[in-house]
TrEMBL record:
Organism per entry: Aquirufa avitistagni
The keyword Transport belongs to this UniProt entry's keyword annotation: yes
Protein name listed in UniProt: Gluconate:H+ symporter
Primary location group: membrane
Family note: Belongs to the GntP permease family.
NCBIfam families: gntP (TIGR00791)
Keywords: Cell membrane, Membrane, Transmembrane, Transmembrane helix, Transport
Annotated TM spans: 26-46, 58-81, 101-129, 136-154, 174-197, 218-241, 261-280, 301-320, 340-365, 412-433
Biological classification of the source: Bacteria, Pseudomonadati, Bacteroidota, Cytophagia, Cytophagales
Length: 437
């Protein structure tokens, strides 16, 4: 009966978000209340559970996500992202331009949120299409595949960061595993898949072109790469040193402090304030204004994550999570595949990768807590599932359609299949990695 109630509540969530167009945060609160009442939680406990779910979920994530948004906004507005893109295009050359765009999307996608990266890179894609007479999809698909993978797989993006916190995974280890799994996924879904789209010849709308930063105002190539990738360097290096030195090392307490994701992002944002702000002649007031705008961009994302936390907490307090875990554990499906499948189903129904990942995590959490699966790999498995077959209920689908001036059928053939390849390849990569680590 309890499992039927959970399925009913997820169906209600889909209905509220998809058909009634209710704000996702409000929808999560309503569904959490409904689930608590139907599962028999005392009303005072239900109110406390919702508050605890909100606080616990946001407590470990606000600093990471907000500072990550600030870094991404500064990388974009300073022209560092444009410099990275130009450098990689020159490096790969005209013949391998799709590979250059793939790596550009991946590097820029690490600090930038997906929608920001999408809009930021569109002018570059259209400029290259015009300059080299390319098929827009041959240029656009590799970059969008990379941005999508970074969004779904890699912290400090909201969903992966939230999953790391929920599963008590290690953010540095998850990032290393995520990069390993990402590479074959973006190669398959990017340059290789793009070759099958040559028969589709869209004419992108010039309306969406955005003015680029003049060449003489761009930060240096070294500063651009170092600043954008500093969080990755810090997480990877501190994780490797922690393993190498061991827990008994004199430096272990200091290493644990600076390897904390929030501290990593704080160091990165202080460094970026100098390299991409003050050093380029921008005032502190101007840089802080950029950071203020960045916080506005992620406000709703934080609320959606908090809302998902309330639903997870209600499932935990009511005991239904353990019941679901017991049932799922009896199925002849490996836990990593199960996490991917649950996220994929919710993604197809709702459209939001973030909501799909967080909702699936709340249901799969007891299996992870029982120690039956590597939590770092479960983050990646659910992240891959949350990217499955984007279609008409996903804003990313419509952004791609409108920017590239495609029909719905052409968008499904290109964008939706690209997302499906990314999702399935991610799962396969996780399963292979599970046999090694």
């Amino acid at each position: 009966m309890s499992i039927a109630i959970v399925i009913l509540c997820i169906g209600l969530l889909v209905f509220l978000i998809t058909y009634l167009k209710v704000n996702s945060f409000i929808a999560f609160l309503l569904v959490s209340l409904c689930a608590g009442v139907l599962l028999g939680l005392p009303l005072p406990d239900l109110a406390k559970s919702i508050q605890k779910g909100l606080g616990d979920t946001l407590g470990s994530l606000v600093t990471i996500i907000v500072l990550g948004a600030m870094l991404g906004k500064l990388v974009a507005s300073s022209g560092a992202a444009q410099q990275i893109a130009s450098t990689l295009i020159r490096l790969f050359g005209e013949k391998n331009i799709s590979w250059g765009l793939m790596f550009t999307g991946f590097i820029i996608g690490i600090p930038l949120f997906y929608n920001v990266g999408f809009v930021l890179m569109i002018p570059l894609i259209f400029a290259l299409v015009q300059k080299f007479k390319l098929n827009p999809l041959m240029a656009g698909v590799p970059m969008m595949a990379s941005l999508s993978v970074a969004h779904g797989y890699l912290p400090p993006h909201p969903s992966p960061a939230a999953l790391v916190a929920q599963f008590h995974a290690n953010m540095g280890t998850t990032l290393i595993y995520g990069i390993i799994v990402s590479i074959p996924a973006i190669i398959l879904a990017g340059p290789i898949f793009a070759k099958t789209l040559g028969h589709i010849k869209p004419k992108p709308l010039k309306t969406f072109a955005v003015q680029e930063v003049p060449e003489d105002e761009l930060p240096s190539t070294f500063s651009s790469f170092l600043t954008a990738l500093l969080p990755v360097f810090l997480l990877v290096v501190t994780t490797a040193l922690d393993v190498q030195l061991g827990k008994d090392s004199t430096f272990s307490p200091f290493l644990h402090l600076i390897s904390d994701p929030a501290m990593v992002m704080l160091v990165a944002i202080c460094f970026a304030t100098w390299t991409l702000g003050l050093r380029l002649g921008k005032s502190m007031e101007h840089v802080m204004g950029i950071y203020t705008e960045a916080v506005k961009d992620v406000g709703m994302i934080l609320l959606i994550i908090a809302g998902a936390g309330t639903f997870k907490e209600v499932l935990l307090v009511s005991g239904v999570s353990k019941e679901i875990a017991g049932y799922l554990g009896s199925l002849p499906i490996p836990p990593l595949v199960l996490g991917w499948l649950m996220a994929a189903i919710i993604r197809v129904c709702i459209g939001s990768a973030t909501i799909a990942g967080l909702t699936a995590a709340g249901m799969i959490l007891p299996l992870v807590a029982a120690g039956d699966v590597n939590p770092n790999l479960m983050v990646l498995s659910i992240g891959a599932g949350s990217l499955m077959f984007s279609h008409v209920n996903d804003t990313g689908f419509w952004m791609f359609k409108e920017y590239f001036n495609l029909s719905v059928k052409e968008t499904i053939r290109s964008w939706s299949l690209m997302e499906t390849i990314v999702s399935v390849a991610g799962l396969l990569g996780v399963l292979v990695l599970n046999q090694i680590v």
